[in-house]
Amino acid sequence: MTGMDESYALEARDVTFGYVPGSPVLDRWSAGFPTGSMTALTGPSGRGKSTLLYLLGLMLHPGDGEVLLDGRPTRPLSDAKRAHLRAERFGFVFQDAALDATRTVLDNVIETSFYRADRRKEAINRALELLDLFGVDVPPRRKPGQVSGGQAQRIALCRALLNEPGVLLADEPTGNLDPVTTDLVVSALRDHARSGAAVIVVTHTPHVAEACDREIRL
């Protein structure tokens, strides 16, 4: 894609990345992601969709090219500054939920608030509202090992939405969910995009891709 500009919330310009030298997973890949829009990343397994999310989310450094946030390059930033931006600006839903098994459901949801110095009471109230919204009908003090896979994924979504992030990245967020809960999650992602966020979803599910504003196939 060409014609990139600073109106994008998030943008990849000629990004190249590989885990093995000489074998890039992504080769000079470019796209822009505007605010108020939900984008589906689709394509066969092994094409680098999850890797792309980690690059866009500043968890990996591109071998070449640039990831821009609000039109500003992120390559020069220190690891500490990148971590701060992840906590302030991003929300993540990982494919395996990635909950901390040693902490309670509630503490998993409010985890990112610690990095932003949010008021604990406000974070807890917001977390409880989200857990109720997504029908996570388990005691907040329960541990992740005591909930189902579908509940764990919804807990991860609550964590991602806690700070109402400007950029939300979701890797197969409906993979462990039944059709009714899938529709609830997709609706929540769409609503978040409509609120002014850039939402990017990796999915193999046609129904989820069709619910997005656009689809980019890798």
UniProtKB/TrEMBL annotation:
Coiled-coil features, chain-numbered ranges: none
Domain of life, per lineage: Bacteria
A GO MF label: ATP binding
SMART domains in the cross-refs: AAA
Residue ranges occupied by any ABC transporter domain in the UniProt entry: 10-218
Keywords from the named record: ATP-binding, Nucleotide-binding
SUPFAM superfamilies associated with the record: P-loop containing nucleoside triphosphate hydrolases (SSF52540)
Entry similarity comment: Belongs to the ABC transporter superfamily.
PANTHER family: IMPORT ATP-BINDING PROTEIN (PTHR24220), LIPOPROTEIN-RELEASING SYSTEM ATP-BINDING PROTEIN LOLD (PTHR24220:SF689)
Protein's name in the database: ATP-binding cassette domain-containing protein
Organism: Microbacterium profundi
